[in-house]
Design brief:
Shape: elongated
Number of helices: 3
Number of strands: 2
Radius of gyration: 15 Å
Distance between the termini: 22 Å
Largest sheet: 2 strands, parallel
Order of helices and strands: EHHHE
Length: about 100
């Protein structure tokens, strides 16, 4: 993968173009959105196109039984997987989860 400079004295990449994701310790999931909606929103919206993308990723990760669950109904590990899935949907190259 290698190291890529994103900012220096002579080089700058805007933060929204750095393709890096950050997952908070508290997971920072929207309490009123289901798991598929969290992931679809990260990929650009909750319309039918983004729902298909989210559900395909959820299936690939083996989390089909959680797709229609709210954050308060899933375990901490499952919530972390949801956060990481959001990063995957955004095609981020790094994910920092503490």
């Amino acid at each position: 993968m290698g190291i890529k400079t994103v900012t220096s004295k002579s080089y700058f990449v805007s933060p929204n173009l750095r393709n890096i994701s950050f997952g908070f310790q508290s997971n920072a999931l929207w309490p009123h959105l289901k798991v598929w909606q969290q992931i679809a929103l990260a990929s650009g919206g909750v319309d039918s196109k983004h729902k298909r993308i989210a559900l395909a990723l959820i299936e690939e990760l083996g989390l089909e039984n959680l797709a229609y669950s709210f954050p308060h109904k899933i375990s901490g590990g499952q919530a972390k997987t949801c956060v990481i899935s959001k990063s995957i949907c955004n095609r981020c190259i790094c994910d920092f989860v503490r």
